[in-house]
Design brief:
Length: 197
């Protein structure tokens, strides 16, 4: 049985430091995009043919949404929770369709990691930080609340190590980061995976 990760760069880092994990880095794909393309196996998410019955598929999306997209869609009439809830609902439709492709696959969803504190973190100009630190913490925490609820409804496993990697303000603790937006030290993720297997 193989443990697979699918997602943006968070499916690669820090999972690349964990022996035996098979990584499927899909580039800077948004959680929103996975949901928007939920019925499109050519351009969207597709776990076939790499995942076999009995394998674990772990999905790692949402950090880019929280870093530089949610803030653009918040209005006086539509708060961040409504924006996020719709994204996550569509995301889970895509996950359920993928689950149906591989009988016996174990479905796992990884939390959105704590947002990097800014200023103080190197910024990618193509994917800038939008919203202040407190707002991006709120986006990330609600994203994880929505993921947790949907995991419970779908009988999926939720890997939630957010608080173990967060500082006192809910941002990514620099001690565990790569100096940018990724977790560098997989110590708590390894513990969570061991509990799964």
């Amino acid at each position: 049985m193989t443990f697979h990760t699918f997602g943006d760069s968070h499916a690669w880092k820090p999972f690349c430091s964990i022996p035996g994990v098979e990584i499927h880095h899909l580039g800077p794909m948004l959680c929103y995009t996975v949901g928007r393309l939920k019925h499109d196996r050519t351009n969207g998410l597709n776990i076939q043919p790499t995942v076999k019955p009995g394998d674990t598929a772990c999905f790692c999306f949402g950090e880019i949404d929280c870093r530089c997209h949610i803030h653009k869609h918040v209005t006086a009439d539509r708060g961040h929770k409504q924006v996020i809830d719709q994204i996550v609902t569509d995301y889970f439709i895509a996950l359920m369709e993928n689950e149906n492709l591989v009988p016996g696959v174990r479905m796992v969803v990884y939390n959105v990691v704590p947002p990097a504190r800014f200023p103080g973190t190197q910024q990618n100009p193509d994917y800038p930080f939008l919203g202040n630190n407190e707002e991006r913490v709120a986006y990330s925490r609600h994203f994880n609340t929505a993921i947790a609820w949907n995991c419970k409804e779908a009988s999926y496993t939720f890997i939630d190590v957010y608080d173990k990697y967060a500082d006192e303000g809910g941002c990514l603790n620099p001690f565990y980061s790569d100096g940018h937006v990724h977790i560098n030290n997989p110590v708590f993720i390894i513990e969570a995976i061991k509990e799964l297997l």
